[in-house]
Design a protein that fits this description.
Elements (H helix, E strand, L loop, with lengths): L1 H33 L21 H13 L3 H14 L3 H23 L3 H27 L7
GO cellular component, one term: membrane
InterPro entries: MAPEG-like_dom_sf, Membr-assoc_MAPEG
Protein name: MAPEG family protein
Length: 148
Amino acid sequence: MQAQMLAPAAVLVLWSLVMLFWMAGTRLPAIAKGGSKLKINKPGGRGADLEGVIDDKINWKSHNHTHLMEQPTIFYPTVIILAIMGAGPWDITLAWIYVALRIVHSIWQATVNKVNVRFLIFLMASLALVALAIRAIMATVFHNPGVL
């Protein structure tokens, strides 16, 4: 079951890269269209410098990509812990639920971005992650290799 437990993490990695390219594919043309009037060519510039400079809908992809670099960083080690310790079917299901909800969250944030719905999607994904974290604690803290 190790591969089945790691598969959702691999899909989320790929999805994060999809969001990276979606962000670049929308931001770069907007930057090119804005030209020198954007004043973003200063040394040390960051993506946050584009806030209020290019259309908010274009920045939504960047916001989501940033989110994919935040909470999922605790999803990945949780999945690895469970894969090492021996994941059960419920763990795998929870991991897929988390990934599916993060993908839905990404699409929603990048396109519609109504915060009340986005928050509910985020909350559901977070609850799946909490359950996974509890399972990882149970699998490690209560693991007793001396007991058959």
